Amino acid sequence: METHILSGQYVDLFQRKIFPAELRISGSKIAAIIPLETAPQHYLLPGFVDAHIHIESAMLVPSEFARMAVVHGTVATVSDPHEIANVCGVAGVDYMIRNAAGVPLKFNFGAPSCVPATPFESAGATIDVTGIEALLERKEIRYLAEMMNFPGVLNKDVSVMAKIAAAQRNGKPVDGHAPGLQGDAARRYASAGISTDHECVALEEALDKIEAGMLILIREGSAARNYAALAPLLRSHPGKVMFCSDDKHPDELVKGHINELVVRAVAEGYPVFDVLHAACVLPVLHYGLDVGLLRAGDPADLIVVDNLEQFTILETYIDGRKVAEQGKSLVASIPVEPINHFNASALVPEAFRLAAPAKSAAAIGCRVIDALDGQLITGTSEALLPVADGAVMTDARQDVLKIVVVNRYRDAAPSIGFIRNFGLKRGALASSVAHDSHNIVVVGVDDESICRAVNAIIAHKGGISLDDGAASEIMPLPVAGLMTDGDAASAGLQYEKLTLKAKTLGTKLAAPFMTLSFMALPVIPYLKMTDKGLFDVSRFAFTDVFSTAANGAEGA
After folding, report:
1. Which of 39, 167, 258, 495 could connect to 48 by a Cys-Cys bridge, CB 3.0–4.6 Å?
2. Per DSSP, what are the bridge partners of residue 321?
3. What's residue 239's pLDDT?
C-alpha cells in the first residue's frame, strides 16, 4: 500500500486550533497526524462540500463538473439529479451515477422527490412512490432530495408522506424546499421530517426555520443569491448553516465554487472556524457522507491552501490521490454518451400569436410576470398592451415582452404570456433548461425572433439560443437537453459569449439565461408560465393572462 507524507499548518476544525503537523497517508486513508515543531507555511484542511447542487445546471455531465470543481477545492457534492430525472426518469438518475463513478470527486446523489414537480406542467417522466422507495434502498442514493411539494407535506398527502417515510426507514435525511414558509406552517413542515431548507431569501425567514428545527443552506448560485441576507447566521447560529450553490452555470464554475463563499465570509469578519464548519464539516455530518474531515482513519480528502484569507488552492486530494495542483485539474476526461427525451417539431411564427378577446379594441390589460434579478421568485403586475390585427403585442417601451413555453415532449400549442424586466429591445432568448420539467422557455420582442430561437433548440434537441432579430445562434446541450458533452472551459466560453450578446440586445439581468430558466417553475412564487398556462403559485392555480381589473381601460 502506497504511503506518502504531507506537512504544513494543520487546521483542526474539531479542536478549533492550528499547529504544524505531518499527515501520513496510507492508500486512501489518513494513517496518522504527527505534530511538529515547524512546518511549511501553507495550510492543510478538509476539502469543501457543496451541500445542495443540481449538477445539470452547470450544463456539464458530472465527470466534467468534477474536473473543474476540484481546482477550486471541492471534494464532494450533495447532488439532486432532479433536472435529468424530470426529463428521463430513473434512467436519468442512473446516467448521472454511472458518469460520476468515472472520476474521483465524491458525488452524493439523492432520490428526486418530485418528478414531476407539479401536475401543472408536462414533464418527460414520473417517479412514483414505488420508484422512490427503490432508489432509497440503493447505497448510491444518500438522501431524499428537496421536497418541493410543501403544500403536500402540510396537507399530509398520502404519496408525499410515503416518500418521507421511505427515507426515514432507510435512515436517510430529507431535504426541504419551502420558499417563504414561516410560523406554524414552517413548524409543521419541519415536524414531518424535513431537515434542511435552501430557499430562504430573508434572515427572519431563516431564523424562523432554524427555530422550527431545520438547518439552513446559505445559497449563492448563478440566479439566486442569498448570501448577503443570510450571512449573519454564521455568527448567530454557526452550527446550523451550510453553503450551497443550488445552480451554478459554467462560466461562473470556471471562476470559483464554494471557495468563493469561504473567502467572502472570512473577509467580512466571520470566524474562520465557523466558516469552515459550514463549508466542510456540517454537510458531511448531516448527510453521513464518506468524506474525510482530516482525522486519523478518515479518507484522505483535503486541500492545501496558501493562507486562511485568500484560500488559494495549491493542491486538492481525494482518497489520497492528488486531483488538482496550482489551478490545473489532474482528473482525466472520460467518454460521454448522450441520453435525451425530445420530440417537438419545428414551429412557425403564427404559433406564437396571442389572439385578443373578441371585444378588445386598441389595447388590453394583461397580467405580467415581473422577473427579479438574482432571485428565483417573481413579482406580479399588470400592463395595458397594444392590439394589432386582433393580436396582443409586446411593448418594449414598457419593457413588457412575450414569454412562451413550448412542450418539448410532444407537439402541442405553445403557452403564451407576458414578462417584464428582461429589457430586450430586439430579438429573443430561449432555453431547454427550464426548471423543473425542462420544456422550451423563450422571452422575446417579436414572434419571428421567438420562433427562430425556439426552432434552433428543436433542431439540436436541446440548448440555449439567442436571436438578434435577424438570425439565431445556439449552444447545443445534447445530454437530456440540459448538458453539453464538452468540457467546462469550452462551455463557459460559449455561455459567456451568449450572455454578453444578450446584453447587447438590451437586457440588464446579470444572468439572463439562468433567470429565464426559472420563469417556468411553478413551485416558486409568485407568477410563472408553464406549458399549460399562466400559473399563480400563491393560489396554486392557473390564472388568465387577460386582466379584468386592467381592462377598464380597454380601447383607450
Report:
1. 258
2. 318
3. 96
C-alpha cell at 97: 451515477
* 517 sits in which H/E element: helix 512-517
Domain ranges of the chain: 47-291, 349-553
Residue for grid cell 486541500: 303
In whole angstroms, what is the distance from residue 44 CA to residue 51 CA?
A: 21
With a cut of 70, list the residues of the chain below it in pLDDT: 359-360, 548-556
> Rounded to an integer, what distance in angstroms lies between the CA atom of residue 531 and that of residue 314?
47
Would you state the cell numbers that stand for residue 448, as one nine-digit string?
A: 419571428
Three cell numbers at 430? 430561449
Half-sphere exposure of 216 (CA within 13 A, CB side): 32
Whether the pTM exceeds 0.70: the reply is yes
- Nearest in space to 375 (alpha carbons), one of 525, 476, 235: 525
At 87, which amino acid appears? V
Instruction: Supply the pLDDT for residue 360.
Output: 65
Inter-CA distances, 544 with 178, 366, 367, Å: 26, 8, 8
For the domain 47-291, what is the CATH code? Answer: 3.20.20.140
Which residue in this structure is represented by grid cell 501520513?
A: 24
Of 165, 209, 166, the residue nearest 184 (C-alpha): 209
Residue 38 burial by Cβ neighbours in a 10 Å radius (0-12, 13-18, 19+): exposed
